[in-house]
Amino acid sequence: MPLTAVDMITPQVGWGSGPSGYWRTTNGGYSWTALSQPPGRVYDFVSTNEAVTATGEPGAVSFEWTADGGQHWISRTLNIPAANGNFVLPEALSFSTPTTGWLLVEPEQGMNSDSGWLYQTTNAGASWTLVASASIGGTLPSALGILSFSATGQGWLLASSSSTTTPRLYQSSDGGVHWVMSAIASPQGYYVDPLALPTVEGSRGTMVAGLANPPGVITHAAAAVFQTVDGGRSWKEVGQSLTLDNAIAAPMFATPEAGFAPVQGALLATSNGGISWTRLGLPTLPAGSTVQQIDLLGTQDVWLVLTDSAHGQLMAISHDGGKSWTVQP
Fold first, then answer.
1. Half-sphere exposure of residue 273: CA atoms within 13 angstroms, side-chain side
2. Contact 325, 317 (CB under 8 A)
3. What are phi and psi of 265, to 5 degrees?
4. In CATH, what number is assigned to the domain containing residue 68?
5. DSSP label at 81?
6. Percent of the chain having pLDDT more than 90?
7. Range of the domain at 111
8. pLDDT at 289 over 80
9. What band does 322 get if pLDDT is binned at 50, 70 and 90?
10. Are 268 and 277 spatial neighbours (Cβ–Cβ below 8 Å)?
11. So what's the pLDDT on residue 113?
């Protein structure tokens, strides 16, 4: 199974991506159908039937959009006048509804004095509007990162000023026009590197971060869970840090309270936002297998994408919160 990541939309329907392109399942991940669309630089699986991919071009971004589960694709283009014809790179896509989405774009290194742009569409990519710029005097902190938006227009941006600097977490409450950096309290003796975008519902939220010392390291010996009670303006560590194998995927939360963390030889589960964890067994796997990615829907449906040196990619599926598993080749 040549998948490196999955994104389940419902317990039955989901999408997968890999080096050769995209896949889709309609039976919960037990079998997958290859799609004809070649891989883009970035992508977003919008709904059970809709998906979009983006690829950079000189002075533009090209899109491929499907509304029928990947059977047919529509080509669209966004011209970026500020790029002055230079090559641009799409960095992130986030659709909060099937019609409303955001695109993060940066110029190829050394090609332009501007350092990136944020665009929004309200008609499924048929047209785009410039929302913010990362140029001098602009309101976008950086175009090098990942982002997500909710249906209310609340946005989260995890961005770095370069590929070697520590990412910072930013929040927008006006659809990406303005951004405020979140305050993350570092545990004594450590630097905090957020590993993924937070899971926030109302004033409460949860985020997973790597603990590094010294700063700027690529790998982390541990991960910590941080919680917010003020909608993401500030974050504090909760519970005990998790010792990670650097080859294993980061913990993931389905809600601010419910999450799973793959660690060496086991899967941990929490129902209180990472304050405490319960150790679950992993499925019987070939020796040397590691967890590459975890995907969740609620507290019961869990998918693990596994890498094994002898068998390539495998998938482990649980529908009872990790108590029992089915392994798919």
1. 17
2. yes
3. 85, 5
4. 2.120.10.10
5. G
6. 57
7. 36-181
8. no
9. confident
10. yes
11. 47
What is the mean predicted confidence (pLDDT) over 30-34? 93
Are the CB atoms for 28 and 317 separated by under 8 Å?
yes
Structure tokens at 297: 């829907």
Percentage of the chain with pLDDT > 70?
90
Can you read off the two tokens belonging to residue 141? Answer: 């902190």
Residue 15 lies in a domain: no
Residue 61 sits at the vertex; the CA angle it makes with 58 and 66, to the nearest 5 degrees, is 145
Q: How many residues does the chain have?
A: 329
Task: Please give the structure tokens belonging to residue 196.
Answer: 């993924």
327 contacts 316 by C-beta, under 8 angstroms: yes
The average pLDDT across 36-55 equals 93
| pLDDT confidence of residue 210 | 83
User: 143 versus 161: which is more confidently predicted?
Assistant: 143
For tokens 């940066």, the residue is: 106
Question: Which residues share a beta bridge with 230?
Answer: none
Predicted local distance difference test score (pLDDT) of residue 111:
43
Q: Report if residue 103 sits inside a domain.
A: yes
**Please, what sign has the CA dihedral across residues 261, 266, 267, 271?**
negative
pTM confidence score: 0.89
- Counting the structural domains of the chain, the total is 1
CA distance readout (Å), 315 to 15, 243, 307? 13, 23, 9
- Residue 131 domain-assigned? yes
Q: Is residue 209 part of a domain?
A: no
Q: 43, 17, 13: which is closest to 25 by C-alpha?
A: 13
127, two tokens:
């047209």
DSSP one-letter code for 109 = T
DSSP lists the bridge partners of residue 95 as 101
Count CB neighbours of 238 within 10 A: 16
Q: What are phi and psi of 126, to 5 degrees?
A: -65, -30
